[in-house]
UniProtKB/TrEMBL annotation:
The gene is nusB. Belongs to the NusB family. One of its GO terms (biological process) is transcription antitermination. It holds the Pfam family NusB. HAMAP family: NusB. One of its GO terms (molecular function) is RNA binding. Residues 1-23, 159-215 are annotated as: Disordered. This is Transcription antitermination protein NusB. Keywords: RNA-binding, Transcription, Transcription antitermination, Transcription regulation. InterPro entries: NusB-like_sf, NusB_fam, NusB_RsmB_TIM44.
Amino acid sequence: MTDNDRQSSGRRPAHKRRGSRFRARRRAVDILFEAEARDVDPVAIVDDRVELSRLPQPDVAPVAEYTRTIVEGTACELDRVDDTIARYLVEDWTFGRLPAVERAILRVAVWELLFNPEVPPVAAIDEAVRLTGDYSSDTAQAYVNAVLDSVAGNLDALREGEPAPEAPDFLDPGDAEETGGDEDPDAPGETGDPGDPAHHVPSSPTDGAGEPESR
């Protein structure tokens, strides 16, 4: 499914209450998606959101600290993150063929797997699969889950920068089996950073349709 197909399908993120870590990840996905669409530095977008949220009558929600951590970390390690994702794609399914929103979700999850040992791998994978379900298709959920499972299975080597096995031949977007994961054990509950409101360029995957958040 292309980005245009996704937009024309009218699929939007489900408006369900989630933990603050989930909302921080989702906002990081939005920012990374927007940065790629506009070809700008995602950290600059975070800084812009922070400034706008400090206006006397802001129409932009404050940026959660964990959102900033993800965006800054992913931007700093982007080459290594992207190389890791590409390593576990089948030969005929290149990194550039991935829909942009799924690329952003994978970037967030792979950064957490490689560079944030405080997050259990099962939590990073589970939340990425949930985000993919909000933004994309069931097939995409299964594929994202399979890619991240392969990354998680080789974490020791990948974290040390050592060669790790390539993706198995069966890892294909149409054939991947979804296994999911446990509820995010590091989510501190239903209070936390609000989601991004309508201050998004039209290319944003939420297109201004963020879930209501408690303040």
